[in-house]
Amino acid sequence: MPRLPAGTVSFLFTDIEGSTRLLEQHPQTMGAAMARHHDLLREAVEANSGIVFETLGDGVYASFARAGDGVRAAIAGQQAIRAEDWAAVGELRVRMGLHTGDVQIRGEHYFGPALFRCARLMAIGHGGQILLSRATRDLVGEGLPAGTGLKALGTHRLKDLAEPTEIYQLIHPDLPAEFPPLKSLDVLANNLPIQTTRFIGRQREVAAVRDLAAAQRLLTLSGTGGAGKTRLALQVAADLVDTFADGVWLVEMGPIADPALVPQAVATALSVREEPGRSPLATLVEFVRSRNMLVLLDSCEHVVQACAELANTLLRSAPALHILVTSREVLGINGETTWRVPSLSLPPKPPPPLESLDQYEAVGLFVERATAANTNFRLTEQNGAAVTEICARLDGIPLAIELAAARVRMLSVEQIAARLDDRFRLLTGGSRAAMPRQRTLRALVDWSYGLLQEPERILVRRLSVFAGGWTLEAAETICPGDGLQSHDVLDLLMQLVDKSLVIADEQAGQERYRMLETIRAYGREILAEAGETRAVQERHHDWFMGLAEQAAPEGYDTQGLTSMGYEYDNLRAALRWAIDSGDAERALRLAGGLWSFWSVRGFYTEGRAWLREVLALDGGTTTGRSAAARARALQAAGHLANYQGDYHAAATLLEESRTIAQALEDPTALGASLHLLGNLAIGRGELDQAGELFTQARTLNRRSGNRAAEILNMLQLAEVAYQTGETALSRALGEDVLKTSRERGQKWGIARSLHVLGRVAAAEGDFTAAGDLHLQSLAIQVELGDLQGQVGSLAALARTAFGLGDRPLARQRYLDSLRVARQSYELLEIARGLEGLAELYAAVEPERALRLAGAAGSVRKTIGAEPYAEELRRLNAWQQPVYVALGEKRCAEARAAGRGLSLDQAIGEVVAAASAAL
Predict the structure, then answer these.
(1) What is the distance, to the nearest Å, from the Cα of residue 781 to the centroid of all Cα atoms in its chain?
(2) Please, what is the angle between helix 846-863 and helix 827-841, to 10°?
(3) pLDDT digits 0-9 by tens, 745-778
(4) What are 240's strand-pairing partners?
(5) Average of pLDDT values for 183-197?
(6) 79 near 68, Cβ under 8 Å?
(7) Is 343 within 8 Å of 212 (Cβ atoms)?
C-alpha cells in the first residue's frame, strides 16, 4: 500500500443504499456487482491521488492529502457507477461523505475522531448524494471542478450526539440534485440530547448493543454506577434513530422519586396527552400500541420494580415497540436480554510504547478529559506510567477516570496516583478485580469529596437536595447558612464545575446546573450524616413553593409556567417531602400553586392524585392557618376535575372551597370559588347559572379592590353573553375590560378584551373589523409569549378570513393555529382547527373534510369537550350537502377513518392537504 496521507487528511466514505435488501433479492449476482462497485470506486480514488485504505462489506474508505482530490474522486465514482450496466441488480445507489480533520497513523491504520465524523456524515445522506462537511468545504474553497457547485443544507446534528455541523451537497450536471431531507437527528423523530464531550472508543460495544437493541424487544444494560451505561445507550439510540419509524425517545428516570410517576414520566417524554377517565398507563398503552419506536429508560435502579411492570405491560401491548434500559439492577422479567457494560479497555502489562498508549479507551478518555481541564496537559514519557496506573487502579470506570482527570487542573498525574494509593489502601491486599466495582466508585467519590475545602463540601452535600438540576439563584437561597455565605455560592459552584462534581448546562438561554446521580446520592447521604437534611429540605420546599405561587392562573404568567416546566422534578420532590413530613400547610400551598401548571400542561390525572394526598393531610379543617391554603387546593382540584368532565367531583370540591372561604370571610378566596363554579356551569351548559356566579364573583372582587380578578369575571360574563347571542352585552363588557386594562397597563387584559370584541364583530358580520381586532390581540400575545392566547387568535383570524372569502389565508391561519396548539398542549383548539379546515375542504375534497372532522371528534372525545351550539350549527351546515353528494356509507367510512387517526396522523393529513386548491 502507498504511504497514507498524514496530519490533516480528507476522507471519502461510501456505502450502497439498501445493500442488505439487494443481497436478499439477488443472492447470485449481488456479490459480483459489489466487487465491480469496489473496483470502480478504487479507480476513481487512485486516479485522483487518493488511497483506498479499507473496504468493509459494501463500504469503501479512502483518504486524500488534498480536499479537492477527494471531491473529484467522489464525482468520478458516482459517474462511473451511474454509467455501469448492473444487469439483474437494476441500479446501485451509493451515498458519499467527505470530511477533513487531524488524524494519527499507527502502523497501517488511522486513529482519530475525524474518521467517525466522516462515517456519521455519510450515514445521513441518500444514494447518489455527495455530502461535504464545513471543514472540507472551506478547504476546497473556490477550487471546485468546472460546472460544479455546493448547496448549503444547513446545520445538522450527526449521530454522534456532538455539536451540530454545517453540511453541503455537491452539485454536478451529471448527477441528481434533488434528494429527501437528510437523515440527521434534527429531522428524525427523537429527543436525544447534545453531548458536550466526545464519545470515546467502545466501537465494538456500540455495534454489539446496536444489533441486540434492534433484534431484541427488551435489552437492559447493567453495570456499576459510573460505568458509562447512559452514554453507551445514548450512542446506540442515535445510531438506531432511522431504524424505527416512530423514532427513539429518552426517558430520564434519575429525577423520579415516586415509582407511581414512572408511567407519567414516559408519557411526558413521548408527548402523550392524558385522557379523562383513563390512567396515564392506559393512555400510554394505547399510544404505543401501533408504533414502531425505541424507548430508552435511563437510570432505573431506584424505581426498578415500577419500570419492570411498565415495560412488561407496554411490550405485551405493542408488538413493534423496543425498550432499551440502563440500570444497576436488571428488570428481571420474561423476554429481557441483559448485557453488562464492561470497563474501558486498559493497556497490557508491560505497557506498550507511548505513541500507541492512548488507543486504549481508558487512557484515551483520561487524556481527553485532562486536556479539557488543563490545556497544557500532554501525555509524555514521564507521566505515561502514572496515567496508566491511575486508569488501572480505577478499573477503567469512565466516571471514576473523568473525576480523576479533572484534578489535573490542580495536581500532577503523579500526585493523583499517589493520592489514589492512599485512599485505596484497603483494596491493595487482594485482587482489585475481585472487589465490587461499586466500592471502587464509592472510594473515588469519597476521595474526591475529601479533597474539597470545607465550604465546597458544605455546598456539595446541600446541592444534593435538588432533583433534576437548579439555577444559581436557587442555590444562593437554599444552600447558605451555618458556614456558607450566599455571596460565596457562585465562586464555589464554579469550582465544583471545574472539578466535575457539578455539570453546567444551558436551557433556553439560562445557565442551569446538575449533578450526576451517583454524586447526588453520595451528597444526600453525607447531608443526613451532617444532620442538615430537614433544614435544607425546608428551604428547598419554600423556594419552589414561591416559584409555584408566582405563576397564578389569573396572571397569565407564561414565563413563570415555563420556569416551572424546567423545575418540575424539584417541585415534585418538594411536594413529596411536604407530604411525607406531614406538613399540611406547606403541602397545601405548594399543591395550590401548581394548579396552573397542571392545567396548562394537561397533567390532570397526576395533579388530582397529588391533591387527593394533600387534602387528606389536615382532615378537612375549615379554620386555622391551613384553611386558606386548603381552599386554594380545593379550587385546584375542582378546576382539574372540571377539565376532565368529572362534574360531580368538581362541584363537591368547589362547594367545599366556597364554604371555607365564607367561614374565613375571605372575599378573594370566595370570588375565586364562585368564578370556578361559573366555569363548571358553562361546562354543564348551564349558562344562566354561570352568569349569576360570575356576577356574584365580580361584585365581591369589585368591593375588595381585586381588579385583576374582576377582569377575569367580566371576560367570562362576555363569553356567556356571546354564547347566548347577547352580542351587545358581550361588546359592552369587552370594551369595559379594554378601557380598564389600558388604564392599568395590563397587556394580557388588553389582548383578551380585543379577542372578545373581535368575536363580537365577526358574529355581527363585520369580518374586516374582526380581523383587525384579532391581529392587535395576536401581536400582544406574541409579545407576552402567551401561546394559549395565540392559538385562539390565529383560529379566530382563520374564521374571519373564511368569512371574507379568502380561503387560502384561512387555511394558513388554521395551520398556524395547529402548530402553536401542538406547542402549547391545547387539544381543544386542535380539534377546533381540524373542524375549521374540514369546513374549508368540504367543497373541494369532501372525503378529506370528513376525515378531518372524524379526527377532530376523536380529539374532543379524548378531552370530553362537546361542540358548542354554534359549532354544531357550522358542522351541520357543511356536512349536510356532503352527505347528500357522497351518500351515507361513504361519509360514515370517511369519518371512521378520521376517528382512527392518531394526533400526529391527523396533523399529517392537514399538511398533505395544504397544497390542494381551494
Answers:
(1) 25
(2) 160
(3) 888 899 999 999 999 999 999 999 999 999 999 9
(4) none
(5) 83
(6) no
(7) no
Three-point CA angle 112, 115, 121, nearest 5°: 140
Report how far residue 119's alpha carbon sits from residue 125's, in angstroms, rounded to the nearest whole number.
11
What single-letter amino acid sits at 238? Answer: A
By the 10 Å C-beta count (0-12 exposed, 13-18 middle, 19+ buried), 695 is classed as middle
CA distance 451 to 449: 5
pLDDT higher than 60, residue 552: no
What's the rounded Cα separation, in Å, for the pair 283 and 480? 43
Strand partners, 110: 105
Those residues with Cβ within 8 angstroms of residue 780's Cβ, 6 or more apart along the chain or in another chain = 747, 748, 750, 751, 754
> What residues contact residue 195 under an 8 Å CB cut-off, 6+ apart?
161, 162, 231, 234
Question: Taking the CA of residue 387 as centre, how many other CA atoms within 13 Å lie in the half-sphere pointing to its CB?
Answer: 30
pLDDT in tens, 384-404: 999 998 888 888 888 888 888
Q: What are phi and psi of 63, to 5 degrees?
A: -130, 150
Per the structure block, which three cell numbers stand in for 436? 465490587
Which are the contacts of 352, defined by CB distance < 8 A and separation ≥ 6? none
The answer to whether the CB of 569 falls within 8 A of the CB of 467 is yes
The total number of residues shown for the chain amounts to: 918
- Check if the beta carbon of residue 101 is closer than 8 Å to that of residue 135: yes
pTM over 0.70: yes
Alpha helices in 325-412 (DSSP H): 361-373, 384-393, 398-406
Q: pLDDT band for 625, please (50, 70, 90 cuts).
A: low
The number of beta carbons lying within 10 Å of the beta carbon of residue 152 is 11
Residue 429 has pLDDT above 60, yes or no: no
Q: Pseudo-torsion of CA 634, 640, 645, 647, nearest 10°?
A: 10
Residue 152, helix vs strand vs coil? strand
Pairing of the two strands 336-340 and 218-222: parallel
Contact 224, 438 (CB under 8 A): yes
DSSP labels for 538-558? Answer: HHHHHHHHHHHHHS-GGGT-H
Residue type, 241: V
Which of 195-204, 326-335, 365-374 is predicted least confidently?
Answer: 195-204
* Long-range CB contacts for residues 373-377, cutoff 8 Å, separation at least 24: 373/405, 373/406, 373/407, 373/408, 373/409, 373/498, 373/500, 374/408, 374/409, 377/408
Distance CA 400, CA 362 (A): 10
Distance CA 681, CA 684 (A): 5
Instruction: Report residue 476 as a C-alpha cell.
Output: 444562593
Condensed to tens digits (0 to 9), the pLDDT of residues 443-498 reads 667 777 887 889 999 999 999 999 989 999 999 999 999 889 999 999 999 888 87
Give the span between the Cα atoms of 172 and 175, in whole angstroms: 5
**Cβ-contact 803, 771 below 8 angstroms:** no
Amino acid, single-letter form, for residue 272: V
